[in-house]
TrEMBL record:
Annotated membrane topology: Multi-pass membrane protein
Positions of the UniProt region annotated as Disordered: 232-255
Record protein name field: histidine kinase
Domain Histidine kinase: residue ranges: 13-227
HPt domain residues: 417-511
Domain of life: Bacteria
Catalytic function, reaction form: ATP + protein L-histidine = ADP + protein N-phospho-L-histidine
The Response regulatory domain, residue ranges: 262-379
Positions of modified residues (Phosphohistidine): 456
Keywords, sorted A to Z: ATP-binding, Cell inner membrane, Cell membrane, Kinase, Membrane, Nucleotide-binding, Phosphoprotein, Transferase, Transmembrane, Transmembrane helix
Lineage: Bacteria, Pseudomonadati, Bacteroidota, Bacteroidia, Bacteroidales
GO terms assigned for molecular function: histidine phosphotransfer kinase activity; phosphorelay sensor kinase activity
Length: 511
């Protein structure tokens, strides 16, 4: 473990020490080429820039490979438009193909113009690598990129009229530091396709190659892609996953045609978003849910809300920084909207959150009564409908039996909508499996900070269903952030994983 840590520090130091001076060389070369009028000098400077860019790509490839090899790379699923991304990539490669006298064709299916969920940064990295390879090994003819949506997968095929390869080489090309005989004299370490395969596996996709020597190759990428669709009858947006639908990125329309309150939600936890939106929708209150900062800002620009509920601990931006950003922004609504902190932290009291500028605080897991009680306390939801909802929820909670693994607590606010209840439970299972996988990887990597972060994220929902034994284990792990990862902590993480698996198994039986 010490050796791995030392190797990682050395790799980061080396890549930093390379990247900083390379950036300076590239910057000054670019500046000089803009200032000089002498063609020969400009030719020399352009060669300097090209060589520097090549060195920088080698450094970046080494760092990417190192992170992927140690399972340090992460994915960040957000909403995006695949057609727009693919068109941007297509346009960026036109100068390269034109310089080699190659034709570049792009055929994108119309359905990819809609909004989907995946990691666009990783997709761009994969497709850029595949197109770079196609340009590198194609001396004449054309390169064609086609994209379609098929069986809940983004399918991208990149075909070239290059050298092609023998059948025996089709698997070898994905191995690290592998260069085929036809690659002699070409730039690179032989890491590009190895990085591609690891990134594809990270996205739970596949990549295949079909090639004929002397005629060219076709690389076909298949990656899960989750659509964010709009229901024709209600206008409700929802995310469709492998197992069904969830309102993780949704606008929950109220039962009444004229809602008295509009709530904006942001959280990186899809289940928590779904659950909170269901609580509000069940009470006839409209809500818009976001998982990313840009979605939140777009919502504030285009719509009007009475209150914002924000998770405090998110990977991209924490709740405190988000509040500062909103108050300092040039969006009038962002400067004044009441913001309620939603947190699983037990080390801060509600008064402390108010000192930071929050309108209130909700501790996860919270009930519908606690949610509306907080809205009422701040004068945000002072309507007779909301007050009666609080009273009704308190009556239900007072009469609810105390039972372990109470999965009905997750779907209590889906009303008489079986599809909504099914969606919530499917989201619960999907997210729980993803979190369990993160916890397993963190334990395998002896990464105590990551173990603590994942534990913190899982506590609220397991508390809600009454998984007291698991919650106790997770709280201990959460409190060990910043400490060395010991054998005892590994055992505790493994016990937690076993308990999580039991809960998933019991939930499946309950269905």
């Amino acid at each position: 473990e010490d050796l791995l840590a030392t190797r990682e520090k050395m790799m980061l130091a080396i890549t930093h020490d390379f990247k900083a001076p390379l950036g300076s060389i590239m910057g000054y070369a670019d500046l000089l080429s803009r200032l000089t009028v002498d063609e020969r000098q400009r030719f020399y400077l352009d060669n300097m820039k090209t060589s520097s860019e090549h060195l920088l790509k080698l450094v970046v490839d080494l760092l990417d490979f190192h992170r992927l090899d140690l399972h340090k790379a992460e994915i960040n699923r957000v909403t995006f438009h695949p057609a727009r991304l693919l068109e941007e990539i297509h346009v960026s490669f036109e100068p390269l193909t034109s310089a080699k006298g190659l034709e570049l064709h792009c055929d994108i299916a119309p359905e990819l113009e809609s909004t989907y969920i995946c990691d666009p940064l990783r997709l761009r990295q994969i497709i850029n690598n595949l197109l770079s390879n196609a340009v590198k090994f194609t001396d004449e003819g054309s390169i064609t990129m086609t994209a379609r949506y098929e069986e809940r997968r983004l399918v991208v095929a990149i075909a070239d009229t290059g050298k092609g390869m023998e059948p025996a080489d089709r698997e070898r090309i994905f191995q690290e530091f592998t260069r085929l005989p036809g690659a002699q004299g070409k730039e690179g370490f032989g890491l590009g396709l190895s990085i591609v395969r690891m990134l594809v596996q990270l996205l739970e996709g596949t990549i295949d190659v079909d090639s004929v020597p002397g005629k060219g190759s076709t690389f076909t990428l298949r990656v899960p892609l989750f659509p964010v669709q709009v229901s024709e009858d209600t206008g409700e947006k929802y995310q469709e996953t492998e197992t069904g639908t969830s309102s993780a990125l949704s606008e929950s329309m109220p039962a009444s045609s004229q809602p008295s309150l509009r709530v904006l939600l942001i959280d990186d936890d899809r289940i928590q978003l779904t659950l909170t939106a269901a609580m509000l929708q069940h009470s006839g209150i409209a809500s818009v849910s976001c998982m990313q900062l840009d979605e939140l800002l777009d919502a504030l620009r285009s719509d009007t809300f009475d209150v914002l509920l924000t998770d405090v601990q998110m990977p991209a931006i924490n709740g405190f920084d988000l509040l500062k950003l909103l108050r300092a922004s040039n969006l009038p609504q962002a400067q004044t909207i009441p913001v309620i902190a939603v947190t699983a932290r037990s080390d801060m009291k509600p008064e402390e959150f108010k000192e930071y500028g929050f309108a209130g605080c909700l501790h996860k897991p919270f009930t519908v009564a606690e949610l509306f009680r907080e809205l009422n306390a701040e004068g945000i939801g002072q309507t007779s409908a909301v007050r009666s909802e609080v009273a009704a929820a308190e009556t239900v909670e007072a009469s609810s039996p105390d039972a372990p693994y109470d999965f009905s607590a997750l779907t209590a606010f889906s009303g008489d909508d079986p599809e909504a209840a099914k969606s919530i439970m499917e989201s619960f299972v999907t997210e729980t499996r993803l979190n369990a996988e993160r916890l397993q990887k963190a334990a395998d990597a002896a990464d105590m900070d990551e173990v603590a972060a994942v534990s913190h994220k899982m506590i609220p929902l397991f508390t809600l269903i009454g998984a007291t034994e698991l919650v106790a284990e997770l709280k201990i792990l959460e409190g060990l952030r910043g400490t060395p990862f010991t054998a005892g902590q590994r055992q505790r993480a493994l016990r937690s994983l076993a308990l999580i698996e039991d809960i998933i198994r019991l939930q499946a039986r309950a269905d």
